[in-house]
Amino acid sequence: SSADFRHGLEAGLAGNEEAQLLRIPTGSSVLFTRRTTYTDRNQPIEYAKAVYCGNKYTFYTHLKREQLVP
């Protein structure tokens, strides 16, 4: 089972390829995301990246702290 992941968010501008795929003008605001998931032995098992229209994205997060066992 996976142990953890690292997820990055970066604001930027759409290049030609992103603009064409998202059907927005080149240079429009976008949000880039990148995520790498690791096993409990720190081996990467998944890499994902995505691009979202900057004016159509809402970011929510829910963080839960695990109870530490003495």
Give the CA-based shape.
elongated
Sheet with the most strands: spatial strand order? 1-2-3
In terms of DSSP E residues, the strand content is over 45%
Order of helices and strands: EHEE
Runs in which pLDDT lies below 50 for 5 or more consecutive residues are none
Please tell me the total number of domains.
1
Radius of gyration: 16 Å
Query: How many strand elements?
Result: 3
Number of helices: 1
For the terminal residues, how far apart are their CA atoms? 23 Å
- Main sheet record: 3 strands, antiparallel
Helicity range: 10-25%
Which structural class matches the secondary elements?
mainly beta
What's the rounded overall pLDDT mean?
88
Plain-language structure description:
This protein has 1 helix and 3 strands; from the N terminus they run βαββ. It is mainly beta and about 70 residues long. The chain has a 3-stranded antiparallel sheet with strand order 1-2-3, with no helix packed on it. It is elongated, with a radius of gyration of 16 Å.
Tags for this model:
mainly beta, 70 residues, three-stranded antiparallel β-sheet
